[in-house]
Write a structure and sequence with these properties.
The chain has 255 residues and is α/β, with parallel strands linked by helices. 37% of the residues lie in helices and 16% in strands.
């Protein structure tokens, strides 16, 4: 059995059932044009895979917007405000935790949304990606009034609510605790298969999200994405979704 055979077998079950599996790719921490971003864009463009690029508003500017102006495969979303940690040790890092006044947090997010709208206009999808995938759940009720229609974290913990679709990622290909090395490909494939099996069990409507970080991705991480994109294309049963696609199609529930 080849390394990718379990995923091929799972996608065959989708195909035999007359269904298409929905996948999406989110890449975090964009600030400026880099060779790593060029590599990601070239790879995604070659397989027609849309990328939800989470951009840090306080740390970006016109250079990145100019680089992405003609890059239709890249879809900007909002990565908090400045990606600054405000949680005291030994708590896990958070920018959007309960450590600062609520008005301050919402003001920063509103400024971030306005800044990226000025840079990207209608290309911006108003989806909030909390830095480190962590956010005080009590903030979610205020996000629609701030201008957000979607939120993307990691896993299955947060639930959607009226006006705000939670569209999470589920497979993180980079292991930050191991020096930002790519995780074992067999483990990543097993995780994808499990998420797709669970999605198929609930009717196939739940998209499965893959998370990458171009700035710290090694050759092994890019190789994993290249192999995944190629296999998905060969399967004939995978639809890669943009963040706007997801916001339009996902009912308000946790995914």
């Amino acid at each position: 059995m080849t390394l990718w055979q379990p995923l091929q077998d799972e996608l065959a079950q989708w195909r035999d059932a007359g269904r298409s599996a929905s996948l999406w790719l989110r890449d975090d921490d964009a600030i400026a044009p880099t060779p790593a971003l060029d590599r990601l864009a070239d790879l995604a463009r070659g397989h027609d895979v849309p990328v939800a690029l989470a951009i840090i508003p306080a740390r970006t500017g016109p250079d990145l917007a100019s680089r992405l102006a003609a890059e239709t495969i890249i879809h900007p979303v909002i990565h908090g405000w400045s990606h600054a940690n405000h949680a005291p040790a030994p708590e896990k890092k958070q920018e959007l935790g309960p450590h600062r006044p609520r008005a301050t947090l919402l003001g920063e997010l509103a400024n971030g949304l306005a800044r990226l709208r000025a840079l990207y206009g209608d290309r911006l999808t108003p989806m909030l990606v909390p830095p480190w995938n962590r956010i005080d759940p009590s903030l979610l009720d205020d996000l629609p009034e701030t201008g957000f229609t979607g939120l993307s974290a990691f896993g299955h913990k947060l639930a959607s609510r009226p006006g705000l679709a939670v569209i999470n990622t589920h497979i993180d290909i980079v292991d930050s605790r191991a020096g930002n090395r790519c995780r074992d490909h067999g483990m990543l494939i097993a995780g994808l298969v499990q998420e797709l099996q669970e999605a198929r069990a609930v009717g196939g409507s739940r998209p499965v999200g893959v998370l990458s970080h171009h700035l710290v991705s090694d050759d092994d991480a890019f190789r994993f994405l290249a192999d995944l994109f190629a296999l998905a294309a060969q399967s004939g049963t995978v639809n890669w979704k943009s963040p706007a696609d997801l916001l339009q199609s996902v009912a308000p529930r946790s995914i």
